[in-house]
């Protein structure tokens, strides 16, 4: 299961009454490691003149890696996080997370980061099964 959804939240969702804030709070409490990483890169992105900030330290365990994968592989979760933090998230190698300023999306740095070449260059035998 990706998220820990309370019966009350599920009931509101079935009635079509869940807003972004409730959804993001569910993500925050369900995926605390992923939340910590995304909130950190988003905060650092906001504080720098650079186009993005990233985190590239492998997670301490498979449980934390799973949180990152669930958060960033789900369009709904990723989109909720992007709207909440006001960034565009990019993801490589099952643990490298970047938060791009919205104005940088589509630019040369962003295109280079999300390119197949960047993905291949960031591979290593140690990451084969991550």
UniProtKB/TrEMBL annotation:
<protein>
    <submittedName>
        <fullName>Uncharacterized protein</fullName>
    </submittedName>
</protein>
<dbReference type="Pfam" id="PF20704">
    <property type="entry name" value="KH_NucS_shadow"/>
</dbReference>
């Amino acid at each position: 299961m990706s998220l820990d959804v309370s019966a009350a939240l599920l009931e509101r969702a079935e009635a079509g009454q869940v807003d972004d804030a409730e959804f993001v709070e569910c993500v925050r409490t369900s995926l605390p490691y992923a939340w910590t990483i995304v909130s950190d890169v988003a905060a650092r992105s906001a504080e720098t003149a650079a186009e993005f900030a990233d985190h590239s330290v492998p997670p301490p365990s498979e449980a934390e890696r799973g949180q990152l994968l669930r958060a960033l592989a789900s369009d709904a979760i990723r989109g909720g996080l992007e709207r909440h933090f006001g960034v565009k998230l990019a993801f490589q190698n099952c643990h490298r997370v970047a938060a791009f300023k919205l104005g940088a999306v589509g630019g040369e740095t962003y295109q280079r980061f999300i390119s197949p070449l960047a993905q291949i260059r960031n591979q290593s035998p140690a990451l084969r099964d991550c």
